Amino acid sequence: MSNTAAVIAEANARLQIQDRPIPEPKAPKSSLRILPSPPTPDISGTVEAVGAEVKRFKKGDRVTGFATVVSNNNPNHGAFQQYTLLNETAAAKIPDSMSFEQGAILPMAVATSGVGIFLDLGIPRPTGTEKQSGGFLVWGASSSVGSAAVQIVRSLGYTVYAVASPRHHSKAREYGASHVFDYNDSNVVANITNAKRSGDTIKLAFDAICDNGSSEQVVSVVEQRGGGKVAITLPFPETAKKPDNVEILLTFAARINTDAKEFGAWLFNSFLEKSLVDNTFVPSPAIDTVEGGIASMQKALDLHRKGLSGKKLVIPLS
Fold first, then answer.
1. For residue 168, what is the DSSP state?
2. Which of 28, 83, 172, 249 could lock 141 by a disulfide, CB 3.0 to 4.6 Å apart?
3. CA-to-CA distance for 195 and 173, rounded, in angstroms?
4. Buried (b) or exposed (e) across 195-209, using 16+ Cβ within 10 A?
5. CB-CB neighbours of 216 under 10 Å
6. Average pLDDT for 120-139
7. What is the DSSP string of 202-229?
8. Residue 229's pLDDT band (boundaries 50, 70, 90)?
């Protein structure tokens, strides 16, 4: 068997197609034949082998997972190849009814939103039938990370206030948003604060895109509603106002493979697996496939660089 890989030889270079050795799993890792979703470390595929200490997975399992290369720089853990190594704590089985294409768009979105919601914002993990209450703002609700955040916080019991392009408003509502706003509207901050339902405090927010001043606007909403916490996915602008009553927290998805492995195991092995089976979490957003296998990886990156809205690229492998 060969292991075709898309490799970047140096910074800012274009990808090259090479043959790499098939990585061998060592405890507690599994080896998978994967389906990548560029430019993120998202993968989905079939387990080919498992490390001696792996208990949750076996050869033949259909899984989705978060490639560890973003935190350990080990090419054997890279997503842009036919075979890769995956940590047991960053993988989840997917239902037989779910395609690998659907599975491939889950990991980064779930890891980023999960770390932001549960670790950074400090929302307790769900137990039994107890639900959270109040409002929760998600900016960029039609993106992969944003749509995952909407689904997670809605499942926890929050009333979701979502911001997205008007053409994606119906999708945001399908994901679980109760109120949807147009990010292009110059009055969007006022519209959100004025629409606040009785009893909804909006003390928590997640900016999934951090683009065109979105973080400043999210912070402004929370500030005007009495203060709270805001999780963001890119650094807050140094020149922007930081209100005293708003805590701004930078989210790192890769923590599930570093200092938060126990949380990652719960998020993927338990929460995500159960949510997929219960259909309380669905793969989102829409999928665009790029044909040609690993050899088309650079093409996919070029397409991504031009900009996407309400969709995610996936490269099927034969």
1. G
2. 172
3. 16
4. ebeeebbbbbbbbbb
5. 17
6. 94
7. --EEEESS--TTHHHHHHHHHHHTT-EE
8. very high
